[in-house]
């Protein structure tokens, strides 16, 4: 029995149809800019959630989210809680029905922006702050549209959102134990990207923000019975996950047509290395990042300086060392390879790229 439970409305769009092939799927509506409740909000004022620098484009996005969520009153109304509660119902039913094998994909959109944690988890913002509740940071350099105090406030909202998600995931894992799934299942916990919080000047993800705060994600796999608990510095990438799971389940030959490579040896503790390099970038963007365990090279569009960071000694990537260590930059650039360079790439424009905003 295969199930998909999510509040990530992008998955359900007609052009996406990520639920194809699942025996059951449950959509939680209203997240982000989902075309769910007609705006404008009737109980909340958009003006309380933006500052004087917000454009009409961003005000409209805030209005959409507020319309979708203005009826929320209990903690259980917020999206992470609803996704987890639906997942618990699904798992309890699966246990009661005595399904021999299950696959459940739980896709929680939070802690994605807008960052609007319930009051009980909004404990990381300055209680003396008197400005607008900026739940949705704008694009561009934060210094051009927000004060330092507002930047700190937005980061506090994000921390509250993360804490809220963590709380409900804790309830999920506890119920997995109660139902007996915790020790007889492969559990994968991961995310699709991190969140820039103006660490390098800008909030939100984007084609030019190829730093640790965007590229490094939580990634944990628990084997049945908690076997072989360990941490590894092995470099793996998203396409490697599917062939690894297939390999683990005994379908090694099914991994041949996949684009990734199984890291089962790493998972089983028989190796501590997988890839020499990781390569990241937006498909239609120009910027690219090539990194290994120590160095990260960001290749910029023509006319912009490339960047090189020692991510072991400088994980916040605050010191561009490309002039000091040009040979390291050249080595990483060669790892990318000219075959992957495209001459007619265009920079993604818009709020976060055309994949993000309907």
Explained architecture:
The chain is α/β, with parallel strands linked by helices and 358 residues long. It has one domain (2-276): Alkaline Phosphatase, subunit A (3-Layer(aba) Sandwich), CATH 3.40.720. It is 25% helix and 11% strand. The protein has 7 helices and 9 strands, in the order ββααβαβαβααββββα. The protein has helices at 56-69, 79-96, 148-179, 212-215, 241-248, 264-267, 326-336, and strands spanning 2-6, 24-27, 103-107, 187-190, 219-222, 278-280, 288-291, 295-299, 307-310. The protein has a 4-stranded antiparallel beta sheet with strand order 6-7-8-9, covered by helices on one side. A hairpin with a 7-residue loop joins strand 6 and strand 7. Helix 2 (79-96) runs parallel beside helix 3. The longest helix has 32 residues, at 148-179.
List the helices and strands and how they pair.
Blueprint: E1 2-6, E2 24-27, H1 56-69, H2 79-96, E3 103-107, H3 148-179, E4 187-190, H4 212-215, E5 219-222, H5 241-248, H6 264-267, E6 278-280, E7 288-291, E8 295-299, E9 307-310, H7 326-336
Parallel strand pairs: 1-2, 1-3
Antiparallel strand pairs: 4-5, 6-7, 7-8, 8-9
Features:
three-stranded parallel sheet; 25% helix; 358 residues; four-stranded antiparallel sheet; Alkaline Phosphatase, subunit A; alpha/beta
Q: How many runs of DSSP E, i.e. beta strands?
A: 9
Low-confidence stretches: none
* Overall radius of gyration: 22 Å
| CATH homology-level superfamily | Alkaline Phosphatase, subunit A
- What structural class should be given to the helix and strand makeup? alpha/beta
Strand content: 5-15%
How many separate domains make up the residues? 1
- Main β-sheet description: 4 strands, antiparallel
H/E order of the elements? EEHHEHEHEHHEEEEH
Distance between the termini: 32 Å
Shape: globular
Mean pLDDT: 92
What's the CATH C level?
Alpha Beta
Q: In percent, how helical is the residue content?
A: 25-40%
Label the CATH architecture: 3-Layer(aba) Sandwich
How is the CATH topology named?
Answer: Alkaline Phosphatase, subunit A
Strand order of the largest sheet: 6-7-8-9
Q: How many H/I helical runs?
A: 7
